[in-house]
Amino acid sequence: MTIDRQTLCVIDNKPRSISPQQRLALTSLARQVVSQLELRLKIAEQQHLDRAKDDFISMVNHELRTPLTSINGALSLLHHSIGVNLDADAAQMVEISYRNSARRLCLVNDVLDVTRLASGRLPLVRKPLDITALARQAIELNQAYLDQASAGQKYPMTRTTRASSCRATSGGYYR
Predict the structure, then answer these.
(1) Residue 1: per-residue pLDDT
(2) 173 DSSP assignment
């Protein structure tokens, strides 16, 4: 028993029989059309994700970087000029706050730098690195956590404390 398969011709209204080669060509064409539609959907989804990423970066810049810059500037003034009139505990709190705000500002700037690197707006410059100095800096930055751990206190290490690589200086911060 054979079934006569017919298709409606695009040019006229008469049903016509198609050969196996034509059926194969139509099947292949249908697969290509579906693939193109799926690709367009994926491109549209990627564009949506890119817009969401750009919105996030804009929010980071506006909602975090701008106030952190102001806070860091105020703490820098307090630390470098007025801080000498504070008692030892208050001066230490200003120093800690100043260093922490500088590290947070560095973290926000790093997020923005990664975005610029990914978009090609910031060139990657390779240069030699003094690994010993970097290790010393990491130890200095995490000394309080190390002291607490050796004293038996449990202090959770977060991604920020592990990855933080900024150090407060009299001129601001550096990486």
Answers:
(1) 40
(2) E
Q: Give 172's strand partners.
A: 169
Least confident range from 21-25, 48-52, 138-142, 163-167: namely 163-167
Domain limits at 135?
21-174
| Interval 116-171: pLDDT, tens | 888 888 888 889 999 999 999 888 888 877 777 776 655 454 444 444 444 444 44
Sort 141 into a burial class: Cβ within 10 Å, 0-12 / 13-18 / 19+. Answer: middle
In sequence order, which residues have a C-beta less than 8 Å from that of residue 137 and are 6 or more positions away? Answer: 165, 167
Does residue 12 belong to any structural domain of this protein? Answer: no
How many angstroms separate the CA atoms of 173 and 175, rounded?
Answer: 7
DSSP state of 170: T
| Number of domains within the chain | 1
The gap from C-alpha 132 to its chain's centroid, in whole angstroms, comes to: 28
**Whole-number mean pLDDT of the chain?**
78
Which string of DSSP letters, residue by residue, matches 53-120? HHHHHHHIIIIIIHHHHHHHHHHHHIIIIIGGGS-HHHHHHHHHHHHHHHHHHHHHHHHHHHHHHHHT
For residues 103 and 109, give the distance between their C-alpha atoms in angstroms, rounded to a whole number: 10
